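How a chain folds remains the central question behind the approach discussed here. This step matters because it turns folding into a mapping between discrete strings. The sequence in question and its structure tokens are set out directly beneath this paragraph.
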Amino acid sequence: MQTTHATQTFHAPQAPKRDWGLIIGGIALAVVGAILLFWPGLTMVTIATVAGVLFLAAGAVDLVNAFRFRADGVSGWAILNAILDLVLGILFLVHPITGAVVLAWFVGAGIAAYGVFAIVAAVGMRGSGTGWGWMLALGVVSVICGIGFFLSPAAVAYFVAFFLVMRGITMAVYGATAPQALCGGLFC
């Protein structure tokens, strides 16, 4: 009686050499950021106009839904919310420069908060290999840009452009290096 043993070879999964989605997305963000540097005034008026249209659309949908679902116990707060959205939309469309300043403050607060989270994440990533320095730089730049939105709302397009360029570079660097850094760990 003869026994044959089949030999099976198991291979650990290979990490991709590059994450092209991150690389292409990062390059696209950096290019958009660079374009914003050349047309800052038009950029902010356009953003305020788009925000105005979006507020009008949200207000219209909210108002229709408030009356549509009135039997389901929709409160007067829903109607008030819809009216406020409509008023904001009209204000942003009639006064896009003032709207751009208000948006600058809100966006500044959001980007500064993002920067704080990026700094905390970078500190947590410090021992894991490559990329944490870029994340730390992104966090610091984001906090500076966020504060800059409050100090100089007129220059918000430059800050947005700089943020997008930094975010794009960070994404592209991660796309090029992060998958390779995983190969030194458990999975490769």
About this structure: The chain has one domain: 20-179.
